[in-house]
Predict the structure.
Amino acid sequence: MSRRNLIKLLVLFVLGIILIFILPIIIVIIKSFNPNSPWYKPDDIRSEFTIAKLDKTGNLRSERGSAQHFMLSLGNGIDLDMVKIPEGTFKMGSPDDEKGRSHNEAQINASVNTFYMSRYPVTQAQWEQVAKLPQIERYLDDKPSTFGENPLENTNLPVETISWEEAKEFCDRLTQKCEGTYRLPTEAEWEYACRANTTTPFYFGETITPEVANYDCNYTYQSGQLDKPKEYRGKTILVNSIRAANDFGLEGMYGNVWEWCDDIYFFDYKDARNNNNALNQKEPQIRVIRGGAWNSFPKSCRSAKRNFKPQNIKMNTIGFRVVCVFRSS
């Protein structure tokens, strides 16, 4: 073998060693210095959950489901559970004959790409951890909520009394710190994730009961729980205290707290697409909220229900979820 060929073989051998042993180490080092690498995301895991289904009279039955998700560590043993929502198309809005329907719910065909959404509304404990991260645009009070005087209790109460602007700051801080882009859901993403391929007023069926949501249960929807005792809680409850997931694995989409969406509110979906005839043409912008709250009537907790508030308002009925997208999603 000639000296030139021997050198070539040696070079190839060294390159092979680098690819097998050294390159993975280099990648890990790069990730540690650049945690926002768009081509990297935490590993998905698959776990089971309990799906809630109601018949027309409010009788509850449970099914088993499973979903892909990842756990984002926020420090101090506090995680943010992010569920994978597959891409798809759906009928957004409500049919003309849906009880409690509003005029701003005209149906359209909508499509969404794959994204991740937090399994529950953001909790006070999660908020407190992210509030400690470096400021992007605005200061965040680490304990803004009205409810939760007991420090041991408020760990899993939803954060509330925060504005859309503050919720966006929360998402921006996560984006700066973590892999992927974190933001508020679009209105279409929220409804698609909530419905989870259902077309009924609620993802668990034609009605709603206190067993599956926290709302003003002094009132009923359809014939649900007409003959059953009702206990109006009158405040927020722990996000994981009611196990009533939809088919995607999301929980607590109805009641407890309204949830901020990224969108500016338009009366008509077509206006939103064309970006004209907005309800608001001045500051502060009017933003969409979805899902109902602890004091909402049952009809206000429907999948299609649209509500809105100024983006700088703070109320103990409004919280939010986060969405995460990766370049590869």
Residues 25-39, 276-280 have pLDDT under 50 and may be disordered. The first strand starts at residue 45 and ends at 54.
